[in-house]
Design brief:
mainly alpha; three-stranded mixed sheet; two-stranded parallel ribbon
């Protein structure tokens, strides 16, 4: 057998394996996360199962409270948020650098309906995963208000949101504050000794679930998550723009 035939055969074998991998790979349904949690599986086991499938979920703020009520433990909630943020970060970099991953369904955060315990493109109504958007990274959920309609003014902390809820401030007023403020201490956090290739999610999944237990409504949690993600995209857009910007002329 000639060397050329050997090389050709090896290439075909690799391409066949890759084709099998990509056509057989399926995101993990969100119902499986809940069922594993209810079965008593330890958080590291659940997280590893999610990681092995490469699945991320486009979760709203209220979804974390609902998943907590369904028995999903805090470490898993935090992983779900961090993996979602990691995907948004990656897509933002592709967007800035004029790249992308096309219509690969399992490469984007999966749309979720936690009330029905359903997830995935073709299951939950959502725009096509590879839909090109000039104004935001591909795969960004429509409910993330990016780009902002107007510049935010003033600052607002998660603790202030919690206090307003405890003081029985109407939801509409709290949401108005969220939409017109810059959230503090949720972007660029992680500490001096945190080593990661991507930013730490400053708004944890378990924190969103805890806020609900303190009286913060689903509507406010959704607004908080949406604002956090919009602010995160803008911060990463600026970071990656500075990274790819040409240096000064010599």
């Amino acid at each position: 057998m000639s060397v050329r035939l050997c090389v050709t055969g090896a290439v075909l074998l690799v391409l066949s394996a890759c084709s099998t991998f990509y056509t057989s790979r399926h995101p993990m349904p969100i119902a499986d996360v809940v069922n594993l949690s209810k079965s008593g599986a330890p958080p590291p086991v659940i997280i590893q199962r999610i990681r092995d499938t490469g699945t991320t979920y486009a979760l709203r703020g209220s979804d974390f409270a609902k998943l907590k009520a369904d028995g999903v433990p805090d470490p898993v909630l935090d992983y779900l948020q961090q993996s979602f943020v990691d995907d948004i970060d990656l897509q933002t970099r592709y967007w800035v650098e004029n790249g992308g991953i096309g219509g690969c369904r399992f490469c984007y955060p999966q749309p979720v309906d936690v009330d029905k315990l359903e997830s995935g493109y073709g299951v939950v109504p959502a725009p096509p995963p590879g839909r090109y958007q000039v104004s935001k990274p591909m795969g960004t959920p429509d409910w993330v208000p990016y780009p902002p309609l107007e510049r935010s003014s003033g600052s607002l902390s998660v603790q202030e949101i919690e206090k307003m809820a405890k003081d029985r401030t109407p939801d509409a007023q709290i949401i108005e504050r969220i939409n017109h403020s810059n959230l503090t201490n949720v972007i660029g956090v992680g500490g001096t000794f945190t080593v990661r290739s991507q930013p730490v999610a400053g708004l944890y999944g378990s924190e969103l679930a805890r806020l609900y237990s303190q009286g913060v409504s689903y509507a406010v949690l959704d607004a908080l998550q949406a604002k956090f993600l919009a602010q995160f995209i803008e911060a990463e857009r600026l970071r990656y723009t500075n990274m790819v910007a040409p240096g000064p002329m010599r």
